[in-house]
Amino acid sequence: MTRILANVEDIYLRSTSHYGFYHRDWVPTVRGWGSRIRAAVPKTMPKNPMHAYHPKAKPIEVLLRRLSDTDDRRILLMVWAIHALQNNRVAQAKGLIRHPVEAETTDIESKYMAYKWEMESIITLTLNMQKDVVPDFMKCPIDTTEFSEFADTMNLLKAVEQEDSKKLAGDTIMREFHRIAHRQFPWQTGWENVANIYRHVFIYGQGQCAEYFKTTYGLTIQDFMACCFCLYVQTQQAAWNMPLTGKLPVEFAEGAMEKTMAMVSSELWTARRESFELYKKTAVGSAIPAAYHPSYLRVRPVIRAAPRNHYIAPFPEFLLLRSTVGLYFDLIAAPTGVMNEARSRFEEYARNTIVAYLPEFEPEGEQTYQYKGNPAKTPDVLLKRVGRIVAVFECKATKLSFQAQYANDPAADAKSQYDQIANGVFQLWKFFSHVRRGIIDHDLADEVAAVVLTMEPWTQTSAELRTAMIAEAEKIAAQKEPEMTVDDKRTPLFVSIHELENVMSRSTGDDLLETFRAAAHEARYDGWSIREVRTAAVEEKRDVKKYPFEPGQLLPWWKDTYDRGVAKREAEAAEEKKE
């Protein structure tokens, strides 16, 4: 009995009120068994979940209380089922949740569509919300087998986000678009594509990066990606899964799956603890709006549940995210030379991609020259056409931190990261200044685009952030290059590699340069994504070109799997002809 009481006390000390997850006024405390009785919890849920506990309850109070009252495994299963229903996996979700047939949709405009970023927030809040220690008769859990209750939960989250949005002021409301974009756009573009896989294995999966990964984690990047791909396929087919055994269609080294699972999965209660630690680390003493809690599933996409150690991936695509984008964080602690090699490969990838999509261009790498007795460098990519430079690119492979995406003032709260982008702008200006002053000799076209090329979209939908980085570049220029003129400071374009690929896949060389020109000089496109500028500024519609690279060029297991699939389809087709 003493041990049982000690365990109860331990859970009590991890209550929401103890941690101060939200302000004490927001969250009913665990000391509050009596508060639940006073609130007269109904035996059946009212139609409006807002009044589940008290007619004047705030949305956040009701949402967190209901999440606390509901078994975590049921919430994970509910989200998996809805995601399957709306991700072309209806058969796998049948029998898990009662739903109207209209909920079986992939139409983002349907009123039955559940946005993935909101479902991700529900799971993040679930993991962060400490469980109340109260008898079952005091609880009012979500019925996770009913679509209507899922919809009520999502509407509660929307109400919470609406309350949070009321705190925005005139000087912060435009920054909110930046945060909204970072929350939603990656879900809309997705991680389940060949470009995402090839790009990241090219940059992080070779050379010193691959050697460091193998030494540190005990398996190769190729095997790690192969195991994640197998788990991605498995966790789409069923909600709760048993460990993969026997012969698999993808080959990898013995023991690789166990090591991969150790990196991408976590036991449920460990996940709860580590998720909340992640929240506290990023919150740094201040509350974060519910929509922008850091997502633990992006660190460990697979949740294991005792006693049978079955596991679930509410969003299977996060396994692809973890094995591609996530490689950066596996390597971030590596020696400087390792990350320098990754940066060089990003520059090489950019040049290769431009030539593959638009062979009329001649991209050259950076060149070294002497300036005031010291070595200096041109931008990372000098883009030529018929011998003349038409664009210059400064490449930045740094990944976005949480603060860079979701801070109230990203340019200030993630200053060290945004200063790298501002320095990229300065490097572009310095090049134009040195050409004008005859320090280096290059033949420039009449119009030359100045592009800061990044691995991720740093300034999407935010003209304010772009202005802040240009202002910072002005400070650097005043200190380091006082000879620089206004003409040298050409309007920089902030472009992610994904956006550049999107534009090149549906453009000619002239289309690309016209897009750059319009984005730099037409005020109406200030703050626009480069791909949206392409749509609006260039009337010609082109056929979309296929992505020019194949992951099988770098991942033997990918090629073997693809070849076996082709052979199987050919054999089936031949069999059908015989019949």
Instruction: Write out the strand line-up for the largest beta sheet, numbering strands in chain order.
Output: 4-7-8-9-10
Q: What overall form do the CA principal axes indicate? A: globular
Biggest beta sheet summary: 5 strands, mixed
Beta-strand content bin: 5-15%
Number of helices: 25
Specify Rg, calculated over alpha carbons.
26 Å
Coarse structural class: alpha/beta
How helix-rich are the residues, as a percent range? 40-55%
Low-confidence stretches: 1-46
Overall mean pLDDT score? 85
What is the CA-CA span between the terminal residues?
Answer: 72 Å
Number of strands: 10
Topology diagram in text:
Blueprint: H1 2-13, H2 16-19, H3 33-38, H4 59-69, H5 72-85, H6 90-93, H7 116-128, H8 147-165, H9 173-189, H10 194-204, H11 207-217, H12 221-237, H13 256-264, E1 265-267, H14 268-283, E2 302-305, E3 310-312, H15 317-322, H16 327-331, H17 336-357, E4 362-365, E5 368-371, E6 374-377, E7 381-385, E8 388-396, H18 402-406, H19 410-413, H20 415-436, E9 444-454, H21 463-480, E10 492-496, H22 497-504, H23 509-521, H24 530-537, H25 556-578
Parallel strand pairs: 1-2, 8-9, 9-10
Antiparallel strand pairs: 2-3, 4-7, 5-6, 7-8
